[in-house]
TrEMBL record:
GO molecular function, one term: nucleoside diphosphate kinase activity
Top-rank lineage group of the source organism: Eukaryota
Organism per entry: Papaver nudicaule (Iceland poppy)
Reactions it catalyzes: a ribonucleoside 5'-diphosphate + ATP = a ribonucleoside 5'-triphosphate + ADP; a 2'-deoxyribonucleoside 5'-diphosphate + ATP = a 2'-deoxyribonucleoside 5'-triphosphate + ADP
Protein name, entry field: nucleoside-diphosphate kinase
Amino acid sequence: MIDQKQQLQQKTFVLGYPGFFSHRCMGDLVSQFEKSGLNITEMICMEVSEVFAGEHIVNIGWDPEAYAEWSPEAERTAEDEWNPEASNGNLPVASRKWVDYLASDPVVAMVVEGDDSVDKVLELTSKKQLPFWVGNNKRPTVYASKSGEQAERDISLWFRPVSLREAVDAQGKKVVFMLPKGLVYGPQKEVEDVLQQDESYALQEPLKDNFFMEYMSVFLIKPLAFRKRCVGEILDAIEFNSFGLRGLKLVKKAEHPSKAWLTDSDSDGETDCDEYGVAVVAYNIKPCLKILPGDIKKIHLKNEVFEIGSNYLHKSDPGDDVLEAAAEFFEYGFTAWAYPNHALLFGCMFQASFVGLDSLP
């Protein structure tokens, strides 16, 4: 992650595909970057629309019309003609299907910095093994920019600041924003009306109760983990001991003041505002994931151990206050929307990408 004293030289872009969450390899990926001397300087988990996914396909040089009407025969033809060396390991999938995949579940967009970061990341992602490949090493889990110029285009597409007011104005007819203290923006009734079209969907009141919020906890991986370069290990432990992640974001202390940053040595409540952390929302946390006071760490995983210290990690209690805890780091609160043609509810505790959702139907 971020070496806070190092002057970073080159930026590249990495996109973790939706399969990251089902395979629980986000922590492993961060560890690979840390071991290679690379630093993640921007990271956010987001949902994107099919239209935005199509923009990404065009941006990386694929033809979005080539396989607009996807068929098994088209995909077989694409795979038969695939050259791994020429494509830097990216599996060619019929564009229509690939667009559907990117829009099907959360993705993780990252800016990775360091000396020769473009080449280093491409070398890592070319290894046909976890965390960069799954499915008997036949399908990649990430996209990585192929050059510095491509990285600039990718970062410009995926990252840009959007205020809540801009987001509400742009998404007011599509996305519902649920914030602490009962604040709700957006077309809640319209979203609920869409869901009620599906007889198999048992809509609960209020809307936020449809997302298992009572089982969620908010974690903050603290600056000590950055200094010790063990952010990936701690994230791995959270993934290993939860049913899944609902939010992930690199945060700066100066921009997100919270008591969660405090460590045992911060007796006066003052901390270095230039430091970074990783905010994580996870649900159904196993009771064996405990946070002991002080430093500690250890971890190990498969044969267990853990023992992460409070100077490395903060955890909020699950329950009704989780929205307030999350909103300290995910300023747009809980977002929800529905696709009329699917009658399905989408949404997440993490800060949605209003870049990625600005083309919702």
